[in-house]
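Action item from last week, closing it out:
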Amino acid sequence: MQHTTREFEPDQSHTSPAEEVITIIAASMAEVMRKFNEHNLAARGFMIAGQAARQTFTHAGESGAGDLFDGKPMLAATFIRRTQ
């Protein structure tokens, strides 16, 4: 599986203005933590928001709708930080 690296841009559409949320999706918790550390999320004040869970993902948009990751369950871990 090919991964691209980009700076995380938290989606704040469902959070208060005082919170930022980042979800990392990977095949294993080791990969999640590698990405967490790679992007210095602890130093930036992010903490895990709940239990990491293995799940399947589906894109709901009109174009490109369908299963993500070929329907393979992936581990998702959500991290949050307060900004105020």
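Closing note: The helical segments are 29-38.
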